[in-house]
Amino acid sequence: MNETDLLHExxxxxxxxxxxxxxxxxxxxxxxxxxxxxxxxxxxRNPWQAEAHPMDEAVRRALFLxxxxxxxxxxxxxxxxxxxxxxxxxxxxxxxxxxxxGRHSIVIRDYLTLSGAIDPVALERARMQQVSHGFHQxxxxxxxxxxxxxxxxLATRISHRNTGKLLAQxxxxxxxxxxRVAADENLHYLFYRDASxxxxxLDPSNMVIAMERQVRDFEMPGAGVEGFRDLAKAIAxxxxxxxxxxxxxxxxxxxxxxxxxxxxxxxxxxxERARELLVARIAKIERVGRRLSADREERAAVSA
Length: 304
What we know:
It is built from 12 helices and no strands. By secondary structure, it is mainly alpha-helical.
């Protein structure tokens, strides 16, 4: 099956999932979550001072990266339009998704500006760099696109949620912002997960090949941010997102359990080989993740 036929066959399911999304999603307003009373306490036009806004540096970096990821929305919208097309219902979903993701950027940016948690000058410079860089995840076709967005939306939900949990000890208002955004991201994940599951039923071989390629090459949308590796290391040390979380909370529940990778039947020889490679890669990710987590725990114990 080619990708045009796949999207045509999936159109009724995409329409059903869009209707489910619209009936499930809740209306909310960024201005109602932002702590406006802080506007009189912090003037973003003045030089920023980190010590005036106490916060774990990993949480600060996670907020920085989370917002820059949301800021790159124009590229994600165009990429989804290229992968799935602008016709109903895929186009209708893409436009709705864009509107909701734009709201995430608005509320996080307003919160960070008012709270003073991040240097607004550094944040704007990074936004300009990020959006100018664009989005370069290698996605060859709609099969790979479905796999990537399902994994990525879940990863984003986890990152936002865990950032919010750590932020709660410093600022309950920040926790509410991140929890609200994470709830939206979960609905986005469910749309893509279930659309991908339907695609697996239609063409398991091409979907398994797509799974292998996207798990192998997976990067978060924020990978284009300058200094991303250092940011990612700090976020991993804080337990917000690391390889173990990637394995335990994304690859195992989605690829192995929901898409039933190991029990799929009738695969082509190429897909069978892709499955073997993917199962081995997932096992390797688990081993590396566990080792890195143990190393971090040991270093933390020594430091303590």
